[in-house]
Specification:
Low-confidence stretches: none
Strand order of the largest sheet: 3-2-1-6-4-7-5
Order of helices and strands: EHEHEHEEEHEH
Structural class: alpha/beta
Mean pLDDT: 93
Number of helices: 5
CATH topology: Alpha/beta knot
Number of strands: 7
Strand content: 15-25%
Number of domains: 1
Helix content: 25-40%
CATH class: Alpha Beta
Distance between the termini: 25 Å
Largest sheet: 7 strands, parallel
CATH architecture: 3-Layer(aba) Sandwich
Length: 152
């Protein structure tokens, strides 16, 4: 299982997602261009020292990412009809997260194999991208038995 960030805007969220990937043993793909310089101090602060333990792959653009990917693309989007808790995840799924400011463009939205949403209270617009990723990744790992073994 992997997390893929499509042209992230906010370094703190990217750092948090790198930390999530490191802690859960999930690789992180960063699809550029980013809305910040990847060595941004805010990214380093949120990733803390976990970045050195993370499996991070940078892709110059969407085309390069799609050429190299293996596994089914599952987009987290408020435009989906299927709640993440009703979706059947597979161990090699790639959880795709859009830009914080605008999600993903229509061509990317239309090219994924599946779309899921996190159910929210009526009138709620969206969750923070890192929070949404953690919720969906947790459910995906629970379903597929990929949670790391708890350490004492």
């Amino acid at each position: 299982m992997r997390i893929a960030l499509y042209q992230p805007d906010i370094p703190q969220n990217t750092g948090t997602l790198i930390r999530l990937g490191a802690c859960m043993g999930v690789a992180v793909d960063i699809i550029e261009p980013c809305g910040f310089i990847l060595d941004d101090r805010r990214l380093r602060r949120s990733a803390m020292d976990y970045a050195e333990h993370a499996d991070i792959t940078r892709h110059m653009n969407w085309a390069r990412f799609t050429q190299s990917r293996q596994g089914r693309l599952v987009l987290l989007t408020t435009r989906a009809a299927v709640p993440h808790i009703d979706f059947h995840f597979q161990p090699d799924d790639i959880l795709l997260l859009g830009r914080e400011s605008s999600g993903v463009p229509d061509d990317v939205h239309d090219s994924v194999e599946a779309r899921v949403l996190v159910p929210m209270q009526p009138g709620s617009r969206s969750l923070n991208v890192a929070v949404a990723a953690a919720l969906v990744l947790g459910e995906a790992m629970r379903q597929t038995g990929l949670y790391p073994t708890a350490s004492p």
